[in-house]
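Might you be able to review the protein record set out just below?
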Amino acid sequence: MVPAFGVLGPVTAWDGDGNAIPLKGPRHRSVLARLIIARGRVVPVSRLVDDLWTDPPADAVGAVRTFVAALRRALEPDRPPRSPARLLVTDGPGYALRATTDAVDAWRFEETVAAAPALPPKEAAVRLEEALGRWRGPVYAEFADQPWARADSRRLAELRLHAVELRAEALISLGQADRAAADLRAHSAEHPWRENAWRLLALALYRTGRQADALDVLRRARRLLAEQLGVDPGPGLRSLETDILRQADHLGRAADNPAGQVWEQVAAAYDRTVAPDARARLESTADLLRSLAVTGGSGLPAAREHRVAAVAAAEELGDPELTARVIGAYDVPAIWTRLDDPGQAAQVVAVAERTLAALPAVGHEAAKARLLATIALESRGTPLARGPQAARLAEEIARRLDDPVLLAFALNAAFMQCFSRTGLAPHRDEIGAELVALSTRHGLPDFEILGHLVRLQARCALGDFTAADHHAAVADTLAARHERPLVGVFTGWYAVLRLDATGQASATDVEAAYRNAADLLHDAGMPGVADGLLPLALLCLRLRHALPLRFDEFDAFDASDDFHDSDKDTVWGPYAPWARPLLLLDRGHRQEAAEALHATPEPPRDLLQEALWCLTGRAARALGDRRTMARAHAALTPAANELAGAGSGLLTLGPVSAHLTDLAV
């Protein structure tokens, strides 16, 4: 069977059954990649030598022939000895790969993108989504920066961006503007210079009835282009803004929504049929709140608020089984380890504990597991021993009952309590992998998305950006399919982190990208994520690049500031105690910085604890505080193989090993 080749990620080959073909070392893969780039044309051996080595060895020509022979054996294992090769052929002074268009993922991708504009929107959207799903990471991966691969790598990367926008345009034409907007938010944040991305995002928002948001997008694009590039928006953006302001007929409107009509009819029937005081209304409300929580915008904070009221109402009825069902129905996947509203969480935990105690000693195992998982989730980021204990018990019960939905909820709780020390990214990766496998088998899309986000964070912490890219892409695809717009917040921020961590952009461009990514958090309903995140990300960025710690909108603290009562404390949110010593040092206030460092608490047990320990250690080293340096060194040692803060998937302070070296001085 004819093998297939992949360059939309690490260079690889698959046999007819889809199994990876071993290609030996990087030189073998580079020869294959070089021949794929040639598109069937002959590449002379002398050119291959020049491309493979800066300083070729004496036997370079012989080495190339050895690589080719090994590739032939791997790609055509059934070819009779001494018979001519059919795939990787010798032609005159060199070699050529005689592969069909369908055999190379990049060539198939190009063909799909070229054909898409002429297809009906529905077919175009399906084919483009399939084509984009073939991307496994940066094109040509480890060879992307080689002179012989650079042009094709950049061309294909640009074509991918064009494909994303073509898919969004098709979705808008199909009346799926809300889905297109979810995709485009992350896309425009990651690639803020693409005017067409801003245009399509504004159009999608307008089609969903969000005229004010659409105009805000266009104004942000205008400001960004003026401030960062010194140019005015092109005619496409200018004319769209004018058309939106006058609500031009040719812009169309949101398509008629049969789903909304069905909703209204069913809701009316429910109101007519179910008595106002029926307990069934509480359980129905709990199910509805779960759906509301994943819709984005104001849905999440509204769901949290009404959930507390529903739980309290259930407890007032004095029926612990009903209360357990109402609490347990809210199994909303959670990825961030800082609570959005600690007060609301504490109320839910208190009722869950009372309900757990009130249930009969025998039976109700699934209900008990859901209560325990809820306690663990709502106790995340705290030092209480009850959280890890509850997570373990919930997981044990779920495995004993062999209930996949319950196990997914319990694994989410286990993830949230997996921060007892630094350096636990490999364990979180295992949890994410089990979530993905479990959810795929049993059709649990929300937990499948969660598993990919968990793995994105973990692989990012371990510096494996190829795998992280894959999980980000799958999460985005699933989020678009199932209308989960909040996913784009995390994948959009990850895209900026990756720009910085891989050196693909200057510090100035990364800072601009972070500021654009912060727009994804506006009205997302996740204060636990949003509060203080942008200044913290910029602080980490500037520390990594040895830049001054001065910001226009949240300047460094003066020594005279009453820190805990100042507006700046509010701007820096929960990260203020770890930022202040470094900001004071940047101003030259060593005594005040030393006092601030002495008052700095240990970081909470969450996704940013490595980063916050690094901030503490950096300030301690600058101040010569050896005791605090030793504490930071001990805390960070288990994470020696990770990137500080990258486990959040949002920001990084670089390799922990470098911080450990500095702290050991």
